[in-house]
Amino acid sequence: MKRIRVVSVGLGPIGMAAARLALSKHSIEIVGAVDPDPQKVGQDLGTLLGQKECGIVVSPDASILYAEQKPDAILHCTSSFLTRVKDQLFQAVESGINVISSSEELLMPSHSQPDLAIELDRKAKETGVTVLGTGVNPGYAMDFLAIVASAVCFDLHGVRCTRVVDAGTRRLPLQQKVGAGLTVEEFKARQEGGGFGHIGMTESVALVGDTLGLKLDTIEQSLEAVLAEKEHVTEFLTVAPGRVAGIRNIGEGRRDGELIVRLDLTMAVGSDNPRDVVEILGEPPVRMQIDGGIPGDQATAAILVNSLHGVVEAGPGLKSVAEVPPPRIAR
Amino acid sequence: MKRIRVVSVGLGPIGMAAARLALSKHSIEIVGAVDPDPQKVGQDLGTLLGQKECGIVVSPDASILYAEQKPDAILHCTSSFLTRVKDQLFQAVESGINVISSSEELLMPSHSQPDLAIELDRKAKETGVTVLGTGVNPGYAMDFLAIVASAVCFDLHGVRCTRVVDAGTRRLPLQQKVGAGLTVEEFKARQEGGGFGHIGMTESVALVGDTLGLKLDTIEQSLEAVLAEKEHVTEFLTVAPGRVAGIRNIGEGRRDGELIVRLDLTMAVGSDNPRDVVEILGEPPVRMQIDGGIPGDQATAAILVNSLHGVVEAGPGLKSVAEVPPPRIAR
């Protein structure tokens, strides 16, 4: 079996988890790692991961690595936003390297930046590589699974997804990210500053709408605080009754005013019955549930690594998760 | 949008359902239909389907149609068995036409006929077409969904799928196929003659094992009668207590004697709690359930039609459902 040769680009929490997982796989060979952080540059990737040395030294410069190593793909985990990752993506594509990225906006870049999507697709076809944005959400729980569930239908007129995450069982940064423990006033002040929000919600709605031919004409989202009804104590913090337990983020896609796609995400400390539910309103109707819900950051790292084979096998261009062979555990 | 030009090959119940569905889709154009049955040859496909004429006359001869119409793909629904469909598959592939087939053994032809699989793959690559066997089971419920569920895992050591179909809500041929109403003696006599059995169970085990890198060394299946505990009355027949209500078919894949993959299928009149459940034994564990279960024959027709885009887009060769873009509703 030919191993997939990979450079890890971006060594934040997701990038580190993805690199750790990739290092454990026989079918994948990490041949380089890139991060601009001076604390990381020059260090051995294995050491950084708290493991034994692996002989891969973190470099600040992707271009030299790409030229020297000619990897099959990069595992790209630097930023959620297209404006920040754009140059990094083109650099890889122009070097003839497939891209798999955790950038949430790259799930469906035509949604926010149609010109960029066209240019990225054109360039990827020119150099014969595939570019894919994915993760657990967006990329799997509230979009890919709905697309896959539609396969058994003759007809389909709507999609409803519900994802409930008990943030209390997750790491501190997630609990902070959803505002757990804040007062309502603190939450509102931070919300006005743009400090909250699951990124990628509108991209998920757009991807579901586009892939399933639902011809949405408006896509909107709302975000509100979920308040604690009783005290919740996590490993890291305590949420008093009446304080913010987390967020509820709803994405809606409509056609002629009619609600067609509704994605309903709750991430809050103490959420009851964490789960992922996909409901297809169609013929036949389909209701798919994952008990307990899919874990977040860890699953994103898994999905990135488990999508590598699909990205390498797929034809060239900017692709969505619906357009490449499905992710499955890498070995 | 370029429409996918399709020839329907085989107009039994599944082929008819697939043709009816394909005719309703804007993205698909049926350009021919083939069946050897003298009762069908010369008839308009629309008339045969109980609809208005569609201008497609059923032909007994695929070769002329292939040469004249040069379709993008065939919807192939003639037989479960490779020995019977082999020549039909090569005929299409040699004509440069993509194949999507309901043949259960084609889900994983290397399982029963490795030489044929190699030859089919070689020829498909030579002529630049894709060959895919799929359906609801095998092809989706007890294999594809397990593969897709594995995507969120770091590690995985086993797969369990349970599919329970209430045959009492299905059409008469299915109730008969599972032996509903027979005595135990009648069931055993027919079983010895090879008259029962879901086809494709061992193929599903093999596909899951191979795709998820589980290195199975033995694959076996068992089939037994499910007996009615109380009377069941369906639209078509009555099953007295103690008589056969249906079948239970279990496929098991082992490595060094250890049970790794277990697919447990019950199709019986009066089955409680019909459902599809996929359980991934891994890190993290995953449990995915479809309430009520996925309907059978109708869903197979849907999945065939809904896989057309993936087969047309995929690179050439003999592919499995894990190697092409996932099925999703066609429009």
Task: Note the topology.
2 copies of one chain form a homodimer.
Chain A: E1 4-9, H1 13-23, E2 28-34, H2 45-48, E3 58-59, H3 62-69, E4 73-76, H4 82-94, E5 98-101, H5 109-112, H6 114-127, E6 130-133, H7 144-149, E7 155-166, H8 172-177, H9 184-192, H10 201-211, E8 218-227, E9 232-233, E10 238-239, E11 244-255, E12 258-268, E13 275-283, E14 286-291, H11 297-306, H12 308-313, E15 317-319
Helix pairs in contact in A: 1-11, 4-6
The residue-averaged pLDDT of chain A reads: 96
Quick one: biggest sheet of chain A? 7 strands, parallel
The helix/strand series of chain A, from N terminus to C terminus, equals EHEHEHEHEHHEHEHHHEEEEEEEHHE
Alpha-carbon Rg of chain A, integer: 20 Å
Under the CATH scheme, the architecture of the largest domain in chain A is 3-Layer(aba) Sandwich
Strand order of the largest sheet of chain A: 3-2-1-4-5-6-15
Name the structural class of chain A.
alpha/beta
CATH topology of the largest domain in chain A: Rossmann fold
Separation, N- and C-terminal Cα atoms of chain A? 11 Å
Q: What general outline of chain A do the C-alpha atoms trace?
A: globular
Oligomeric organization of the protein chains: homodimer
CATH superfamily of the largest domain in chain A, by name, is NAD(P)-binding Rossmann-like Domain
Number of helices of chain A: 12
